[in-house]
Amino acid sequence: MDSRFVRPQILLARLHFELPVVQATSTARDGDDTKTGTKKLFKLPGTLKLRKKDTTVVFVAGATGNVGSRTVKELVKSGLRVRAGVRSIDKAESILGVSISYHVYDQLEIIDCDLEKPEEIESALGNSGVVICAIGASEKEVLDVTGPYRIDYEATKNLIAAAKNAEVKHFILVTSLGTTKFGLPASVLNLFWGVLIWKAKAEKALIDSGLAYTIVRPGGMERPTDAFKETHNLRLAPKDTFTGGQVSRLQVAELLACIANNLELAEDKILEAIAETSAPLRSLEDLLIEIPSQKKVEKDEPKKKVVEAIQVDTPPIISSRPLSPYPR
Length: 328
Ligand SMILES: NC(=O)c1ccc[n+]([C@@H]2O[C@H](COP(=O)([O-])OP(=O)(O)OC[C@H]3O[C@@H](n4cnc5c(N)ncnc54)[C@H](OP(=O)(O)O)[C@@H]3O)[C@@H](O)[C@H]2O)c1
What we know:
Layout: E1 9-12, E2 15-18, E3 21-23, E4 35-36, E5 39-40, E6 54-61, H1 66-77, E7 81-86, H2 89-97, E8 108-112, H3 118-125, E9 128-133, H4 147-165, E10 170-174, H5 195-209, E11 213-218, E12 233-238, H6 249-261, H7 263-266, E13 269-276, H8 284-289, H9 294-313
Parallel strand pairs: 3-8, 6-7, 6-9, 7-8, 9-10, 10-11, 11-13
Antiparallel strand pairs: 1-2, 4-5, 12-13
Helix pairs in contact: 1-6, 3-4, 4-5
């Protein structure tokens, strides 16, 4: 067996089975598919050519995180296959293993991938047609002034570039309220070494990439537990609506899984997510439909400006005949 592809035995739910672990490495190159221009094609054992992207396969970056781990579980529950991108296989096994039951064994692969190492990423994506990025500089990095720059911006940008190069079909990025609108309390987050500024730059890199995208900006997630949704229903709004509000990590994970299952409903949308006791209980799909696509907003905006410009610059038309087609 190729030593690059390790399959450690682990004990889950008192049952022995193997959780597939793939070491993402750029040396796993397919002999037939060496370089095509600047692009490299790689092949992992048991997979087809990685260029064939499958939107039922979702790569989750940050799969050991609070949102990412819940997202992996929701995706698997919904029937999609997951490539869980992690920096530590041991951590992933203990976080994901305990709650992923053995019968979904073939739906989940754990992929060793550090997004600060760009050369690892494209092969880690494999045949994923969808990427969810839920990474973030952690509290451990609170004393590291470069943390948010390195992780929330550079590492995210590395993933966007690899996804673009790999011709991924849809990229879902988790950022935060307050990335492009100043307001309290969200803007206080910038005290963490300008984290919202770096997240805003990551959002821009994604939009500029030309990939189909969804950006999810959650409210505060520190306090709400998974039980939050029993008393607080999700509310979604277009970009730059909220500067405060809370939502649970589980609610965000459920939203991310819903997006992965309904890509067209969420294409080129920027969603802000909070949960409130006063919000009505509605399906996630219904909430998604109501958010305008940025493509449509951008297409409509210039037209509106032209109309306004015409109205401002054009001198009043003096006519002897009524302008209305209808006689007075
Ligand atoms: N907390 C809030 O109230 C709040 C509010 C709004 C938005 N957000 C944002 O929501 C996102 C998810 O939050 P969370 O609470 O789930 O964060 P989290 O628990 O800190 O998880 C962060 C994840 O990012 C991973 N990661 C960091 N650097 C990486 C790298 N170089 N390569 C690959 N993975 C890397 C971590 O991996 P390791 O396990 O290996 O460290 C971890 O899995 C973050 O962007 C956060 O800023 C948070």
